[in-house]
Amino acid sequence: MQASIAIQSLPDMQTMDEVVEIVDEVIAYLKSTGLNCYVGPYETVVEGDDYDQLMDIVKECQHVAIRAGAPKVSAFIKVEYEPEGEILTIDKKVTKHHLDD
């Protein structure tokens, strides 16, 4: 893997149930990309070899939330990019902590 993004979408909704519903839509979109994803309690991480594709995914997450009914959405994004090498993958970062799950 050459790139990784972590995205936390925060739709501006009236109730927590509405927030969860829209965040679930964003997560469903992320999973639909076919890239390796890891859903955590605060953000979802997606990794791949195409940096531009990952940046398009970040943008589309905003559109997904708006189409799902959010009047406004904020996002916190983390990006790791190594065009000439390898990044530390999701599996290497967290698998050892979930072996007994």
- Number of helical elements: 3
Oligomeric state of the chains present here: single chain
Rounded mean pLDDT is 95
Strand arrangement in the largest pleated sheet = 2-3-1-4
The domain count comes to 1
Secondary-structure class? alpha+beta
Give the N-to-C terminal Cα separation. Answer: 25 Å
Poorly predicted parts: none
CATH top level is: Alpha Beta
Q: What general form does the structure show?
A: globular
In CATH terms, what is the fold-level topology?
A: Alpha-Beta Plaits
Report the strand count. 4
Largest sheet: 4 strands, antiparallel
So, CATH architecture? 2-Layer Sandwich
- What radius of gyration results from the CA coordinates? 14 Å
Helix fraction, binned, reads: 25-40%
Query: Order of helices and strands, N to C?
Result: EHEEHEH
Percentage of β-strand residues: 25-35%
